[in-house]
Amino acid sequence: MSVKKIAILFSGNGSNLENILKKVHNKTFNGTTIKCELLICNKKDAFGIQRAKKYGLETVIIEHKNFNSREEFDEKLVNLIKQKDIDLTILAGFMRILTPVFTKNVKAINLHPSILPLFKGANAIKESFESDMLVGGVSVHFVSEELDGGKLINQLVFYRKKGMSLDEWEENIHALEYEILPKTIIELLAFSN
Ligand code: GRF
């Protein structure tokens, strides 16, 4: 049996973080046990920190505002991830643009609430809702230097119902996020060689 270590980076609410802890952490898939070895948050008041405590996990808080540059902040992240010998890093609601210092040194995946390459950036849910699109969806992709631009790994979509509200649109997106992210982590760590 093998063990694969993950790191999760988040910035706020942490519902995707909790979903991963619930469905993936300390569980075995196809002979591989996946362990969450590192949690990093760049906001000291993020609710996700409390969610992680329920699972007995402490979060390392690294506030980007204490660094002189994006590169210095990224270097700190990379050092922590390397120290723990992490196999896969997951950005789950981590709201920071990462530089090549991070992207060239860490194998990471990101969850994004739209059908990429459409609606990149921080307002994807609202922008996709306000578009003419008849489908919405979510994407998981490898993290590259281009914001929300790395190679796609998985996507899930839903149909727009007539008269759908923004809240309903968002609910659909979150429901798919809770499906796609654990599935992708398991696929990458336990079902590919
Ligand atoms: C999710 O919609 C994710 O796609 C986006 O940020 C949100 C994070 O939500 N990048 P949560 O913190 O996991 O609840």
TrEMBL record:
Binding site residues for (6R)-10-formyltetrahydrofolate: R70, M95, R96, I97, L98, N110
Pfam families with a match to the protein in the record: Formyl_trans_N
InterPro entries, A to Z: Formyl_transf_N, Formyl_transf_N_sf, GART
UniProt GO MF annotations: phosphoribosylglycinamide formyltransferase activity
NCBIfam families xrefs: PurN
SUPFAM superfamilies: Formyltransferase
Binding annotation for N(1)-(5-phospho-beta-D-ribosyl)glycinamide: G14, S15, N16
CDD domains: FMT_core_GART
UniProt-listed GO biological process terms: 'de novo' IMP biosynthetic process
Limits of the Formyl transferase N-terminal domain: 4-185
Enzyme Commission number(s): 2.1.2.2
Protein's pathway: Purine metabolism; IMP biosynthesis via de novo pathway; N(2)-formyl-N(1)-(5-phospho-D-ribosyl)glycinamide from N(1)-(5-phospho-D-ribosyl)glycinamide (10-formyl THF route): step 1/1
Active site as annotated: H112
One GO cellular component, as annotated: cytosol
Keywords (A to Z) from UniProt: Purine biosynthesis, Transferase
Catalysed reaction equations from the record: N(1)-(5-phospho-beta-D-ribosyl)glycinamide + (6R)-10-formyltetrahydrofolate = N(2)-formyl-N(1)-(5-phospho-beta-D-ribosyl)glycinamide + (6S)-5,6,7,8-tetrahydrofolate + H(+)
Species of provenance: Campylobacter ureolyticus
Family in the record: Belongs to the GART family.
Broad class of enzyme this protein falls into: transferase
Positions of the record's site feature: Raises pKa of active site His: D148
Keyword Heme: no
Role, per record: Catalyzes the transfer of a formyl group from 10-formyltetrahydrofolate to 5-phospho-ribosyl-glycinamide (GAR), producing 5-phospho-ribosyl-N-formylglycinamide (FGAR) and tetrahydrofolate.
Annotated protein name in UniProt: Phosphoribosylglycinamide formyltransferase
